[in-house]
Design brief:
The chain is α/β, with parallel strands linked by helices. It folds into two domains: about 200 residues, FAD/NAD(P)-binding domain (3-Layer(bba) Sandwich), CATH 3.50.50; about 200 residues, FAD/NAD(P)-binding domain (3-Layer(bba) Sandwich). The chain is built from ten helices and 28 strands. The strands form nine sheets. The protein has a six-stranded mixed beta sheet. It has a four-stranded mixed beta sheet with strand order 1-11-8-7, with no helix packed on it. The longest helix has about 35 residues. About 40% of the residues are buried.
């Protein structure tokens, strides 16, 4: 099945991936071009709803209801004048300028949508990233990943069930029974450990007195680098490790996991870390289908290589941005880091780029601006942060100020999708309803 338009039809802009960057781009282009009939905007995603990916650690810990915070793609497309196609891209035909979507099935295996081809004049690939297991044996079988809301919810259910079993068993809680082993001390691993400490403490106030994070719950982080948060400044790492120690989180640095077993983690030094549940957050890569996608150039991490205009190196009609793209930094200093702020900046640039492309004008060049890094450390610890280019240098901010800045990042994303008025109303409604919400989901 091919969705084709005649040669006299509007310019077809197809965006694959409804993550933070892709959805922001579709929304802005729909408002600026789709609404005025200057182009036809189409968003493609394998999921039916959107959740800001930096919130997944909260879903996994149970402190965020992913269903309440999600945004339906079909509703957003109606409000902002773009089309939405449900489907997972699994192929590309550059000669015919078509992407290929795999069939969609329900949970019983019944086909909902057939295989389809979608035509484009300009294609933007923003499919994000997935966990990279680096070929380590046992990761897929025994570790939870946090790439999607479904995976985060599944881990939360397993954690709650483990706590319930430990609470009802007549025997004492075994040392590894409530041990969570987290592989990777990047932002996701660190934030998850702190949030799990807080939500498990909340469980004890709900009547599960036997579940005490200071006695029964053991949180272990294993990192191959010589410090936590290896991609962030040293000063931020030092501040965060102090707070993790205060929470009782055990951190092993310089330990590379070489095998994951059903009962724990084995490192290259021969150390075995017993754990009842394990999470893998040791690195990311682009989805496997990007590797060699119809001749497009990609690297070992399956990221598409792009020029500073965010166009792929071998096709001017195809753009890529966010975690799935390898965009060079000036001076050969590596690539733009896979951060939400980079995807936000690139989405804003592509709004201008695609409008200029419609008129045959030269495209602007992307220049990454580092506005600093923030790490959330739960309810009972302040948020450590480092702000950079905003102030022409760097400074550490902590406590209430850092928490406010971290909260504002999500609000900026919501403003990009809904505008200031709707975001302000939704925020006010959430504040009013806060006393009626439980602090941790139990299902």
């Amino acid at each position: 099945m091919t969705m084709r338009m005649s040669k006299s039809a509007l310019h077809e802009i197809v965006i694959v991936g409804g993550g933070a960057g892709g959805l922001e781009l579709a929304t802005r282009l729909g408002d600026r071009l789709g609404r005025r009939g200057k182009a036809r905007i189409t968003l493609v995603d394998a999921a039916r709803s959107h959740l800001w990916k930096p919130l997944l650690f909260e879903v996994a810990a149970g402190s965020l209801d992913s269903y309440a915070d999600r945004l339906e793609y079909l509703a957003q497309s109606h409000w902002h004048h773009f089309r939405f196609h449900l489907g997972r891209m699994d192929g590309l035909d550059r000669a015919r300028q078509e992407i290929q979507l795999a069939p969609v099935h329900d949970q019983r295996g019944v086909e909902i949508l057939p295989r389809r081809n979608v035509r484009y004049d300009s294609l933007v690939i923003a499919v994000g990233s997935v966990a990279n297991d680096f070929g380590v044996p046992g990761v897929r079988e025994h570790c939870a990943m946090l790439d999607t809301p479904e995976q985060a919810r599944d881990f939360h259910r397993r954690h709650i069930n483990a706590c319930l079993r430990a609470h009802t068993k007549p025997d004492a809680v075994q040392p590894a029974q409530l041990t969570v082993g987290i592989v990777g001390a990047g932002a996701t691993g660190v934030e998850l450990a702190a949030e799990l400490h807080d939500t498990t403490r909340e469980l004890s106030t709900y009547g599960l007195e036997d579940i005490d994070p200071d006695k029964n719950l053991r949180l272990v982080i294993v990192e191959a680098a010589d410090r936590i948060l290896p991609g962030l400044p040293q000063s931020l790492s030092a501040s965060v490790i102090t707070r993790l120690n205060d929470l009782g989180v055990v951190v092993h640095t310089g330990e590379r996991v070489v095998e994951v077993r059903s009962d724990g983690l084995l490192t290259a030094s021969g150390k075995f870390i017993a754990a009842g549940m394990m999470v893998w957050s040791a690195g990311i890569k682009g989805p496997d289908f990007l590797a060699g996608l119809d001749g497009l150039e990609s690297n070992r991490s399956n990221q598409l290589l792009v020029r500073p205009t965010l166009q792929t190196t071998r096709d001017d009609a195809i753009f890529a941005f966010g975690d799935c793209a390898a965009c060079p930094l000036p001076g050969g200093e590596g690539n733009v880091p896979p951060r939400a702020q980079a995807a936000h900046q690139q989405a804003a640039l592509l709004v201008r780029s695609l409008r200029r492309r419609l008129h045959g004008k030269a495209l602007p060049v992307y220049r990454y601006r580092d506005y600093g890094s923030l790490v959330a450390l739960g309810l009972f610890s302040p948020v450590g942060s480092l702000m950079g280019a905003l102030i022409g240098g760097s400074v550490m901010i902590e406590g209430a100020l850092a928490r406010l800045v971290y909260w504002s990042l999500h609000k900026m994303h919501q403003v990009a999708l809904h505008g200031y008025y709707k975001t302000a109303l939704a925020t006010l409604a959430n504040l009013i309803n806060r006393p009626n919400r439980v602090k941790i989901k139990l299902h």
